Amino acid sequence: MTRFFVLLLILSAFCAFSFGQNYTQTKISNSANSKFLPLSELKEGMKGTARTVFRGSVAEEFNVEILGVVPSAIGPNRDLIIGKISGGGADRTAVFAGMSGSPVYIDGKLVGAISYSFPFSKEPICGITPIEQMLEIFEQKQTNKTTSTEPRSFSFGELAATTWKPNYPNGSIVQSSILAGGNPNSALGGVIGQTFQPIATPLAFSGFSQEALNQFAPQMMSVGLMPVASAGGGSKITPLAKFDENTLRGGASVSMSLVRGDYSMAAAGTVTYRDGEKIYAFGHPFLNLGSSDLPMSESSVVVVVPSLNNSFKLSVPNAMVGTMTQDRSTGVYGKLGQAPKMIPVKLNADESRTIRNRQF
């Protein structure tokens, strides 16, 4: 009798999970027929367009051809659409860091976000996160759980030491042996291009020395961040700006700031879809933080630098218009008009010749 009840509970949980998955997909398909193209209707050989910013703040179109779909390539019930881009600015840059989130449309319907690529690929092949799976994960009720920690003290010697290494979040890099017949744990896996990886996120630094960037570049690149020395001397600390119907529409360049002020650190990506005050972007994790609270800003692109290794976007954050509140496996989610919670920091450095003050 006990075994019977256990089996019944397991079967009920499985049915509830399956119903929830199917209900969410059906809800997306039925409620927005004019906006989205369901994954089930996607066919090999379909052609469409994508949008991203190559320079300035206006999104430009380029072509996308659907090559196929790999089920559960990102994770359980997380599929990946395989495509090939061409035309427009894409002929010069191919898939580049900062393109993450670029919306793909077929017959005017949104398919998903360009979000994955093959390192050192000879052709501009990309992975596309289905829009229904991006929306699905953020429709689930998310709980903000914070844990208190005791204050920690650091000596100046520890802070100045070059041997210190930060603990970056795990899980930012996705490797799957489904996509090629190789060992996903190989140290050369990312080099020989046997696995799809999230498109690198350019992290623009202002006010930092090149030596500092070189010191921590390997650790940042290991979690999908591409450190870029930005022109200029930091970003202004401005209040939350008002938004309108043209703010952060699909294809627009968006920045998430980690530090603002005399020192600046801002990650760049592309908006996939805007639904009122809701913003969906990237199509893959940023830092895999789960619940988060980061300033979300409009940004302008100075230039997309073509590179045989990895082309990248050099962008400058503009006005802060909202907050990135979720960082999940299929993208990031933010809200316009919501101010983030930030910690003001003032740094005084006493030197033998002068006193330097920095605020961020």
Can you walk me through this structure?
With 360 residues, the chain is α+β, with helices and mostly antiparallel strands. 18% of the residues lie in helices and 38% in strands. It contains six helices and 17 strands. The model is unreliable at 1-27, 171-184 and 186-193 (pLDDT under 50).
Summarize the structure in short.
The chain is an alpha+beta fold and 360 residues long.
Largest sheet: 6 strands, antiparallel, barrel
Structural class: alpha+beta
Shape: globular
What is the mean predicted local confidence, pLDDT?
A: 79
Q: Helix proportion of residues, in percent?
A: 10-25%
Helices, by number, come to: 6
Q: What oligomeric state is this?
A: single chain
Give the strand order, joined by hyphens, for the main sheet: 1-2-3-6-5-4
Cα-based radius of gyration, to the nearest Å: 21 Å
Beta strand count: 17
Poorly predicted tracts of residues: 1-27, 171-184, 186-193
Distance between the termini: 64 Å
Approximate strand percentage: 35-45%
Question: How would you spell out the order of helices and strands?
Answer: HEEEHEEEHHHEEHEEEEEEEEE
